[in-house]
Amino acid sequence: MHLTKHPLALGALLSASTASAAPQGGFDYPTPVGTVPMMRFSCTQLVVDRIDPLVNPGSVPSPHLHQIVGGNSFTPSMDPLAHDLPSKSTCTTCTFSEDFSNYWTAVLFFRARNGTYKRVAQHQEEGLRGNGGITVYYIPNADSKQTVTAFKPGFRMLVGDASAKTPNAPRKVCHRCMPKSGDNRNINCGPPDTEELPSKHCVGGIRTVITFPTCWDGKNLDSPDHQSHVAYAEGATPYAVGPTAKCPDSHPVAIPQVMYEVRWQTQEFGPELWPEDGSQPFVWSTGDPKGYSNHGDYVFGWQGDALQRAMDARCDNNHCSVLKEQPVEEAEKCAVARHVEEDIDGWLTKLPGDVEVQY
Fold first, then answer.
1. Which of 279, 244, 296 is nearest to 357 (CA)?
2. Which of 8, 150, 315, 324 has a 20 to 30 Å separation from 241 between CA atoms?
3. For residue 182, how many other CB atoms are within 10 A of its CB?
4. Which residue ranges make up each domain of the chain?
5. Which interval of the chain is the signal sequence (predicted)?
6. pLDDT at 351 over 70
7. pTM for the complete prediction?
8. Is the pLDDT of residue 1 over 90?
């Protein structure tokens, strides 16, 4: 996502109802009321593995495959009372070297005419560099007079439902069929985004967006479903960006909005490889060919008060004067070994974990 002179966060392209002007990305100065600064940065691939310490802690393997970025202390078990990410990590795949959080999503596969599967590669968004992975956003309130409270150690949350077979509510996980370059129409799962996987060949690949809640109950660092301790604001427009509107009384604390963008290189699989009936050939690692089961997991791991400093400074894009940065070459050195030894890169007769596709 970009403007003419500078790469810019997707969400900073605001509608007239939420902003008077778009911020000029990449500068660290206070942002006036009516614009939304977006800390937007790359986190390159840490590992692609069949583990999930949030939903299936301790299970090796977990039911389906994930792609993970962030700090290298990522393990099958990350007990919030014992696993302190900043102290246990020695490196991170993210731009800001004080961010040892972990971020992960499901993985997209292509299904060929002969019924075999191939994992779809990823690439970073325009204006950013990195080996696949996720583009991560942290978004403060559009009103510079309103502060947000950074997450606490041990905080974690989940958006989406890996078992979903029908549209979710609220609509916060979506797909966009991308052109060869640029597409700044609407934001935050606004049209032309869909919950379903695109039905046509996308010359710029498929972009997925996952948008997390902006209100916290102020007490619980997690909940049994990893969702109930957070909520979306009341009265926010369907595609609002950042902590807008009013937090409900049950969840009174405004928190930064975390958002993921992932660019899947589906353009590498041309129409000549698609099923003869022209039906879309992509399927999530959950066995979902519709698109409803994609999901995002988040485990907070910023060092000290680094995230709070960045939100107070209203940092924009992938540079922030109050944070330490590392070159992408250093971030790409950070990696961990897979816990589950299985073929995930060749042409497969079944999805990893023998997951059945649910048509």
1. 279
2. 324
3. 12
4. 1-359
5. 1-21
6. yes
7. 0.90
8. no
Instruction: Report which of 7, 72, 68 is spatially closest to residue 41, judged by C-alpha positions.
Output: 7
Tens-digit pLDDT profile for residues 293-313: 999 999 999 999 999 999 999
Per residue in 62-106, pLDDT tens? 999 999 999 999 999 999 999 999 999 999 999 999 999 999 999
